[in-house]
Amino acid sequence: MEKILVLDFGGQYNQLIARRVREMNVYSEIVPYNKTSVAGIAEAGYKGIIFTGGPNSVYDESSPHFDAEILNAGIPVLGICYGCQLIAYMAGGEICSAGSVSEYGKTGLTVKKSTLFADVPEKSVCWMSHTDYVRTAPGGFEITAATANCPCAAFADEERKIYGVQFHPEVTHTEYGGRILENYIKNICGCRGDWTAEDFVNTSVEKYREELAGKKVLCALSGGVDSSVAAVLLHKAIGSNLICVFVDHGLLRKDEGDTVERVMKNEMGLNLIRVNAQKRFLEKLEGVTEPEKKRKIIGEEFIRVFEDVAKQTGKVDVLVQGTIYPDVIESGKGDAAVIKSHHNVGGLPDVIEFEKIVEPLKNLFKDEVRAAGRQLGIPEYLVNRQPFPGPGLAIRTIGEVTEEKLAILREADAIFREELDCSGFGKEANQYFAVLTDCRTVGVMGDARTYGYTVALRSVTTDDFMTADWTRIPFEILAKASNRITNEVRSVSRVVYDITAKPPATVEWE
Ligand code: XMP
Predict the structure, then answer these.
(1) Of 98, 355, 366, 402, which is least packed with CB atoms within 10 Å of its CB?
(2) Could you please report the per-residue DSSP string of 143-171?
(3) What is the structure's pLDDT at 465?
(4) Cα(392) to centroid of ligand 1, in Å?
(5) How many angstroms separate the alpha carbon of residue 226 from the centre of ligand 1?
(6) How many helices (H) and strands (E) does the chain have?
(7) pLDDT at 312
(8) Do the bridges between strand 48-51 and strand 77-80 make them parallel or antiparallel, or are there none, so unpaired?
C-alpha cells in the first residue's frame, strides 16, 4: 500500500496534513520525530515524507531535530514551516528570526515555475504563521517562492526531490494549498491514490478472516458509529464467531435501544446479545446528584454487567475495541487535566478473559470510519450519528436521575432533534440535544398555574469537540421546538436555549 509519513515536530496542523493526504486517497500516518529513525523510515517503504511545523526555533538546543541522513535516503521530503527551516538547517542554510516582521495570516505569495508549483499562478495568497525564516537557502537548493517579508518562502532541490515551504499549504486559507500538496503527493512522490473505503474494507475483511479464523471474538457495541462499524466489519470477516454485546443501561435516547437492536441484529445480521440492564443502573443511581459520581457509577456498573456476560460467553480469544486514529494520536500526548472522566469500554480488558485486542479502525479518522460504514451498508442515520456520551441521559438529567425525569427528557430531546432535522438546519450543527434541568418554574396553561421543569436546548458547531461554539439556530425553529415541547411533554413549563461556547462551558452539562 502506498503511504506517506507525516513526521511530527509538534505543529498544530499535523492531523490536518495527514487528512489532506488521505483526501487524495493516499494513506498517511503521523509519527513523532523521536519515535523513528532513518533506517525505520526506509524499511517502512514510504513514498514520501512531510516534515510538519512546530513551535520551536531550530537553533534552540531543546528543539526537535532529525538525522540529516534522511535527506540522502532517496525518499522525497517536503518540509512545512518549522519543517522547512529544519531542512535548511540540516542542509547548511541560514535561518534567522524575523523579529518585528514575523508574518501571520494571509500573505501575498509569488512563485517560480517548478514541479511543486505546477499549475499555481505566479501570484496568489498563502497562510503564514512564523517568526523565524530561512535567510539563505542551502547549497544545491533553488529559491522558488517569496513574500514581501520572506525572501525565501520556498526552496527546492529537484534532483534529490527535497522541498521546503515556509507557509502552510494544508490550511484552506492558502489558495493553491491543495494543488501544491497534490503536486507533491502525485507528481513528486508518484502516488496513484488508490486507498479508498472500499479498498480498506476489502483488505481488512480479508486480513481478519485469516487472522481470526476459528477464534471467538467479543465486541462491546454501544450503537455509536465507531463500535458499529468495527462490529459490522468483523462480522463480515468472521460471521457468527463475533459475539456483540449491547448493554442497554436505560439511559439511551427515545427508541434508541430498539433501533440499534433491530438494525444490527435484523438488518446487518449480527450475532447480538442485548442486555437489558435498565433497572440495575437506575438503582445504582438512586439519590446520586453529583456529576462525577454518576459517571463513575455508570462506568463501574458497565464493567459489572460485562462480568456477568463473561460468565455466559466463557473465555473469548479476542476483544474488539472501536479505537480510532485521533484516540491513538491523543494518547501519545501528556496528561491533560481531567475535566470529566469519559466513560468508554476502557475497563473491559480487566474483567473479560481474552488473549488479544483487535482495533480494526485504529488508523482511521472519523470521516473515514463513516465512509467505511457506508461501504459496509450500515444505514445512513447510524453512520452519521452525532456523538453520544457513554453515561447517556444520566449526564443530561441534572440532579437525581429517575425514570420519570428520563421519560420527560426523552420526549423533549426527540422533539428538538426532530425539529432541527426536519428544518434541514441540523446539518449546520454537529451535536444537538435537550437537557432536563433540575429547576422547576411557574407557568400558566389554560387558566391554571403550572409548576414544571425547565428544559434547556443545546446545540454546538465544532470541528473537534475540544472547542465549540453555540449554533445560531434561526428563531423560528427554536420557537417551534419550544412550543411543541411545552405542549406535548407533560411537566415542562419552560424552555431555554444555551448560548455558551466551549470554553468556558463544556458541551454536555455534566
Ligand atoms: P464535553 O462535555 O466534554 O464533550 O465538552 C465533548 C464531546 O464528548 C462527548 N462526551 C462523551 N463521550 N463518553 C463519551 O464517549 C463520555 O463520558 C462523554 N462525555 C462527553 C460529548 O457528547 C461531546 O461530543
Answers:
(1) 355
(2) EEEE-SS-S-SEEEETTTTEEEESS-TTS
(3) 85
(4) 9
(5) 14
(6) 15, 20
(7) 86
(8) parallel
Range 197-383 has CATH code 2.30.110.10:
no
Specify whether 81 is catalytic.
Answer: yes
> What is the whole-number distance in angstroms between the Cα of residue 388 and the centre of ligand 1?
7
Name the helix (H) or strand (E) containing 235.
helix 225-238
Atom of ligand 1 nearest to the CA of 505: 5
Write the residue with the smallest CA distance to atom 19 of ligand 1. Answer: 389
Atom of ligand 1 nearest to the CA of 391: 17
Pairing mode of beta strands 271-276, 431-445:
unpaired
Average pLDDT over residues 439-460: 95
Indicate the top mutation candidate among 221, 327, 340, 433 to test ligand 1's pocket, ranked by most ligand atoms within 8 A of CB. Answer: 340
d(CA 4, CA 48): 5
What CATH superfamily is the domain 3-188?
Class I glutamine amidotransferase (GATase) domain (3.40.50.880)
Tell me which residues have their CB closer than 6 angstroms to ligand 1: 340, 342-344, 387, 389-391, 431, 465, 502, 506-508
Write out pLDDT tens, residues 220-238.
999 899 999 999 999 999 9
- Residue among 385, 397, 413, 465 to mutate when testing ligand 1 (max atoms within 8 A of CB): 465
Q: What is the pLDDT of residues 6-52, one digit of tens each?
A: 999 998 888 899 999 999 999 999 999 999 999 999 999 999 999 99
Residue 66's SS3 state is coil
Q: What is the architecture of the domain spanning 396-497?
A: 2-Layer Sandwich (3.30)
**pLDDT tens digits for range 401-424:** 999 999 999 999 999 999 999 999
pTM listed for this prediction = 0.82
Q: Which atom of ligand 1 is nearest to the CA of 386?
A: 24
Write down the catalytic residue from 170, 175, 256, 411: 170
Can you give the residue ranges of every domain in the chain?
A: 3-188, 197-383, 396-497
- In single-letter form, the type of residue at position 433 comes to F
d(CA 26, CA 413): 40
**Intrachain domains 3-188 and 396-497 with the same fold:** no
Run of H or E residues at 123:
strand 123-130
Residue nearest to atom 7 of ligand 1 (CA): 465
